[in-house]
Design the sequence.
């Protein structure tokens, strides 16, 4: 793999003014799946990005490059992790597309520490997971200031393209600033998603 490659052009999701974490997750996954077998094992977000991005396979040396996120790809052929960084390197994002988060979460069932819903086939798996986690936080861990945002995902296997049932289980909330949540698909634990307050 080359040291730096521009990712396909990003668009803003719905009314947002930054590249959404789900779009970064999907773009990096598609790029790396074309290069080698495996899955996106971990992705951590550092900044809100509003410019087109490149993926690097060596830590950025210059402070001029804004690192939007970084993570690890599990290469199943070598049995090792490949580190990557996504940095702003292009023109400002100028286009957007519709995203109906309310429709995605419609019919979700909430309890004190979980949110469950059948997989919504109109959206990707990562969009389902992030939107349901966000709804849980906004309903059960509401804030007086700031907002809950997708901060990190850690997976033990590749996310499937679909499933019957998605369950997000909150098991740690630190002072309403940082949370850890299990991702359970059809009763099977696949990893965790972490939300932070921005």
Sequence:
């Amino acid at each position: 793999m080359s040291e730096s490659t521009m990712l396909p052009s990003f668009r803003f999701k719905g009314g947002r003014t930054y590249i959404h974490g789900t779009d970064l997750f999907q773009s990096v996954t598609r790029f790396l799946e074309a290069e080698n077998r495996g899955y996106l094992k971990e992705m951590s977000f550092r900044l809100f990005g509003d410019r087109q991005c490149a993926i690097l396979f060596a830590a950025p040396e210059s402070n001029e490059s804004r690192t939007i996120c970084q993570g690890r790809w599990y290469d199943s052929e070598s049995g090792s992790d490949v580190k990557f960084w996504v940095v702003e390197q292009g023109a400002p994002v100028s286009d957007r597309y519709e995203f109906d988060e309310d429709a995605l979460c419609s019919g979700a069932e909430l309890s004190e520490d979980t949110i469950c819903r059948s997989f919504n086939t109109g959206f990707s798996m990562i969009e389902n997971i992030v939107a349901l986690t966000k709804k849980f936080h906004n309903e059960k861990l509401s804030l007086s200031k700031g907002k809950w945002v997708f901060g990190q995902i850690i997976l033990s296997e590749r996310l499937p393209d679909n499933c019957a049932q998605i369950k997000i289980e909150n098991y740690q909330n630190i002072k309403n600033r940082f949370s850890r949540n299990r991702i359970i698909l059809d009763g099977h634990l696949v990893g965790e998603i972490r939300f932070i307050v921005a």
